[in-house]
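Journal club prep, shared notes

We agreed each person brings one worked example of a sequence with its structure written out as tokens. Mine is TRAP transporter permease. I'm keeping it raw so we can talk through how to read the token line rather than staring at a rendered picture. Sequence first:
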Amino acid sequence: MTLERHPKDFSDVEVGEDHVLAHDVDQEPVEANRRLFEGGMLKFVTLLAIVYSSFHLYSLNIAPLETWSFRIVHIAGALVLGFVLFAGARFVSAEEGSARHRWTTWVGAVALLPAFYVLYQTYSFWQMIQNGAMRIPVDLETWHFGWPLLAATGVGIVMSWFHQRERSRFSVPDLVLIVCSIAVAAYFLVAFNTSMRMSTGTSFAPVGISFAAVAGTALIMELTRRVAGLALVIIGLVFLVYVFAGPYLPGFLGYPGLSVQRFFSQVYTDAGILGPTTAVSSTYIILFIIFAAFLQSSKVGDYFVNFAFAAAGRSRGGPAKVSIFASGLMGMINGTSAGNVVSTGSLTIPLMKKVGYSKKSAGAVEAAASTGGQIMPPIMGAGAFIMAEITGIPYTEIAIAAIIPAILYFASVYFMVDFEAAKTGMRGMREDELPKLRTMAKQCYLFLPIIILVVALFMGYSVIRAGTLAMVSAAVVSWFSPNKMGIRQILNALEIASYMAIQIIVVCAAAGVIVGVISLTGVGARFSVLLLDVAEASQLLALVFAMFISILLGMGMPTTAAYAVAASVVAPGLVQLGIEPLTAHFFVFYFAVVSAITPPVALASYAAAGISGANAMETSVASFRIGIAAFIVPFMFFYNGALLMEAGWFDIARALVTALFGVYLLSGGVLGWFGNVTASWIARLLLIGAALLMIEGGMVSDLAGIGLAALAFLMQRQRKSRLAAA
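Then the structure, token by token:
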């Protein structure tokens, strides 16, 4: 028997409340679009998605574009596709839409006039520059480009909030936003490919750059609201308000201030939206999303899940252990924790419930395991690439440093799952419910894409070249399996990749706005000073403070955006405390990741609760408990650099063994199960104390931890004897 995965794709995740993806979340995106779009409309959407992915592959591997131009087209394409596929309010039937919201269509049609006029003016600007003009007249930019663009963008956004869109056709308000997105991109391509680029941030900057940046920022925030909810939008707006309110704030928050024109002439440059977050999303992230789509289209990704079932499904609580392995494999490629939950949890959560896990526990295990995928080397959900971009540390060094912390996290989740299965007497899955391990082993060549990726990276190939080789290998190995990839399947993969990419691209662009505010206002440096002041009292207190800020900034945000923002605010302060940059950024990265399972805003837990049918808040609390090691591991490698491979081999091995024993004891103490019997409160406290001592990493503390663990074991042995006698 071969398990078939529930046909979910990676893009149907983290959708804000009342905002629904235009293709049905229970269907493959291509088939769903065939239902929702018709005839020429379907062909247009499909072609647009395929061209968008193909453009990235062509530009990354064959004919690279100028950097800023490439990033501008990258964002513009995501905006155009996003406004096609995501509704501003909600979907309705054709009868409801025609009867109730005809007025929004008429207002949108009126707004199309200035939108197309702005697009025409951009073309005329290009002609002027081609004819030798050094600058565009201010009046022309202001009255014939800037204000019409803002008017069309504003009307389009507001109308989209009220327009209840019909599923089978585009809405006119969204068409306004599409035209405005193209106009913004066209203007930036014209302006930034001349000497005008050098004037950004000065009083000589063309006013049109500021107008285009305001409209572009509004479009990015609107699409972010549709695909990721309000959390990131609210945070972004708070930072934007700070730009202009900062001069009036007291204490360390105050700064001299920036004018509207000066700020917005810089925010749509590599100091903000076109900066590190977009640099990574336009190269590494989009490439690995296409790779994930190839794995999905070739069914190689299904093999990973089936292999995990064959290997671990028979053990007690088998589906939960399968969830750990499958989520680790798929989560390192997927860019969001909640996306990983949807892709693997649709299969593992129902099976966990079948073998005895409660709804809450099943969702919590999947959420914790899927979140761990984001810290799984070598890809780490694209976090490794952002870290390399921000810090300048070689990618291979980051991937190697992530190995032991990832082992500790997944070991902790595994121990939790195993202890709970033993505590509640759960069984594994029956032989006839599982794929045959022997059959799976014969198809082990399907692991080749991952092996080729890892080997190519460590042989010194560029990330782009290694990812492309892995992508091609996924297609090639499929020819030796029942699911051969032909031209149709390759085009299908390119289409799926575009749908998968929209959310993470626009979220990275929105995070770029926040990063731009931090860098242009200097608030990050002032936060570093505050952190230094706290550290004078206690370095541990400063680390705890940094932990809370990282989690707070990451709540409600996908991993990449959460880390990018936290790295801009918190990491510089940790570096100034004397912490090594690699350790500081790993510290921030881990807490940005685990914000996905931290109440009250735990996106991964909420996604899992939606599948399991459990209460969302209860699931988030349970997933927080299961993933508790992730909140301790960063402190472990702060106090013991050997856990980040920054020591000799003997010290690294000793640190790994003692830390593994520590998380084992921690799991027993948190769950209340040790020595095959329920633990008393005294034994649980002893286990947690022993775990913390083992985690610290010193020889004396390790011996003390072993002593406490031995005492707890003796207590549990006596307890077991008493229970057996009774």
